[in-house]
From TrEMBL:
<dbReference type="Pfam" id="PF00108">
    <property type="entry name" value="Thiolase_N"/>
</dbReference>
<dbReference type="Pfam" id="PF08541">
    <property type="entry name" value="ACP_syn_III_C"/>
</dbReference>
<feature type="domain" description="Beta-ketoacyl-[acyl-carrier-protein] synthase III C-terminal">
    <location>
        <begin position="258"/>
        <end position="341"/>
    </location>
</feature>
<protein>
    <submittedName>
        <fullName>3-oxoacyl-ACP synthase III</fullName>
    </submittedName>
</protein>
<keyword id="KW-0808">Transferase</keyword>
<dbReference type="InterPro" id="IPR013747">
    <property type="entry name" value="ACP_syn_III_C"/>
</dbReference>
<feature type="domain" description="Thiolase N-terminal">
    <location>
        <begin position="70"/>
        <end position="152"/>
    </location>
</feature>
<keyword id="KW-0012">Acyltransferase</keyword>
<dbReference type="InterPro" id="IPR016039">
    <property type="entry name" value="Thiolase-like"/>
</dbReference>
<dbReference type="InterPro" id="IPR020616">
    <property type="entry name" value="Thiolase_N"/>
</dbReference>
Amino acid sequence: MHFSDVSLASIGVTIPTARWTSEQIERDLEPLYTRLKLPEGRLAMMSGIASRRVWEPGTVPSGPSIQSGRHAIEAAGIDPTQIGALIHASVCRDFLEPATASRVHHELGLGPQCWVYDVSNACLGVLNGAIQIATMIQSGMIKAGLVVGTENSRPLMEATLAALNADTQLTRKTVKPAFASLTIGSGSCAWLLTHRDLAPGATSFANGIAQANTAHHDLCRSDQDTAGAAMQPLMETDSETLMAEGIATGVAALSDLLADSGWTRDEIDRTVCHQVGSRHRVGMLEAMGLPEERDIVTFPALGNTGSVALPLTVAAAAASGELEVGDRTAMLGIGSGINSVMVAADWGQTQISGEWSGLLDELAELREPEPTVVG
């Protein structure tokens, strides 16, 4: 779908302060590592993830979402009553009901005519919400809308660590489905989209497409629906098959995006993929015929932050100058299910604001080349 009247006016970010390294997680798994004789450094080596952030105990998603939403609204300089839709779109939410969006809407002081609801679609929730808001704006239904999400990895990580150490029947083979759970991180991000008249010069949210490959809906699955701050979920993932089928879905989706936007691969200045890990990134870019040097990553410092992974990476790239005005930017989202949502955007003067908690400095250090040893 083509959006001629939609701008990404601003992005709000909230990053947790607590940092869990892959080395620390392996130390916590010492009973398992010792019994199975697993080599130290395996987690970082296989995933490319050095660390991930976690919220403090007791954090509920609406809290950081309110902060991120407030950052986005203030950065755009828009009257909150002009916002006609508020979508909360992360996997994590406060309760089964009411919608987490309800508390966020109230605390942000948005108007009574605002559309308020939750959207959930694994790692694609925020992108799905952005497309819904863009469609509302393009149709003339609203002038501005906010999509926000907060992912909380702490309960999943703690439950996974406890389960892995407690199960003495695990083998090197049977432990593999739990590996993906150890790569998950926390974060919060809000995108404020408006009619272009309200944000002249901001990023043009130009095209959006969807691709479904739901024959593979069972490759990544949490147990039952246990939404809420006290949830203790476990997740099993067939990582190898999920990666292969996800890449195939992404290749088909990119073909649709290029057709819809009229771009060629060579005309894409910057790409942002869903942030899973190093193997996924290399495999996906190779299959799509896209160069690694144009791609932007945050997973080494944040891990996989679910629905906010790609939106946070876009924000970090803009804040650090990796994304520049005029860059043709392809946002390449893929989520379990399997589904893909992709967006073509002409990057403009989108305002970025938030609480980065040292993340930008950490990413800059990770981007620095290794020193050359002579002699």
